[in-house]
Amino acid sequence: MPDEKSFDSTFDVNVKGTVFFTEAIIDMIKINGKLLNVSSKMGSVDYCERTDSVAYRMSKSALNMYTKILSNRYKNSIKVASIHPGWVKTTIAERM
Q1: How many CA within 13 A on the CB side of residue 9?
Q2: What's the structural domain count of the chain?
Q3: pTM of this prediction?
Q4: Which of 6, 59, 69, 75 is the most buried (most CB within 10 A)?
Q5: Is residue 91's pLDDT more than 60?
Q6: Is-contact 82 64, C-beta < 8 A?
């Protein structure tokens, strides 16, 4: 079971922060510009085989959905995509 404080913090950063920052600046992106969200394959429903990192996985899934919504909203003016940069050593996941 995820820790509630960590769960809230993860969603605040990965979802809420991204959404409200993006909505504040998206009109500054020029026609034919690009918007990239840093996501993770851990947010993919198709690739989910493990049961760990509940908040992280769910928040990245939400980010992927937001990216798709933006892609639909701006389909005639800017390119919007989520990218997965690969595994990164952090204090959360020091090894793969």
Answers
A1: 5
A2: 1
A3: 0.86
A4: 59
A5: yes
A6: yes
